[in-house]
Amino acid sequence: MKILVIHGPNLNMLGRREPEVYGSVTLDEINAILQERAAAVGVTLLTVQSNHEGALIDFLQAEGWDADGIIINPGALTHYGLALRDALAMLKAPIIEVHLSNVYRREPFRHTSVIAPVATGQIAGLGWRGYLLAIEWLLGTRGQGPGTRDQALGTRD
After folding, report:
1. Which residues are annotated as a binding site for substrate?
2. In the chain, is it the N or the C terminus that has fewer CB atoms within a 10 Å radius of its CB?
3. What is the mean pLDDT of residues 100-123?
4. Beta-ladder partners of 123
């Protein structure tokens, strides 16, 4: 099983950026926790962070075709990353959108996600543990084969 974890703009600043909102755990610490969980169950976990939408799209195009699951925290691209949304939409793997903070308790512009319509589900407001919950959900879909996201969305055969 192969899971991709994609971290969008400014997530490289976790631990220093607004710790009252995003917590004090760094991105490296989050990735290490996720790698440890994945290794414990024999899952290949690939992580990427970029402040540039095109770099995230390049990663999806290179690694996404045979992925069994995608976890994405698009950061600010949540609200306007249409090219990222389109790159996700062309893949078959289930997609879990993760946000460290509860975006619905914050500024109104954060309430809209262009990613959500192509995601299987969304986890928000649970801090770094939201990533672990996403992994656990994806592990629960193991063995269901391609089309899991499509079946969940009811959009494709």
Report:
1. 73, 79, 86, 100-101, 110
2. C
3. 82
4. 98
Q: Which of 99, 104, 111, 131 is catalytic?
A: 99
pTM, 2 dp: 0.86
pLDDT at 143: 55
Say what the pLDDT of residue 16 is: 85
Residues placed in the known binding site: 73, 79, 86, 100-101, 110
Please give the residue range of the domain that contains residue 18.
2-153
Judge whether 99 counts as a catalytic residue. Answer: yes
Domains contained in the chain, number = 1
Active site residue 22: yes
Angle, vertex CA 96, rays to CA 147 and CA 2, nearest 5:
65
Select which of 7, 22, 52, 104 is catalytic: 22
| CA 141 from centroid of its chain's CA atoms | 16
**How many Cβ atoms are within 10 Å of 10's Cβ, its own excluded?**
15
Is the per-residue pLDDT at 157 higher than 60?
Answer: no
SS3 assignment, position 70? strand
CATH number of the CATH domain containing 102: 3.40.50.9100
Our measurement of the distance from residue 3's CA atom to the centroid of its chain's CA atoms, rounded to an integer in Å, reads 10
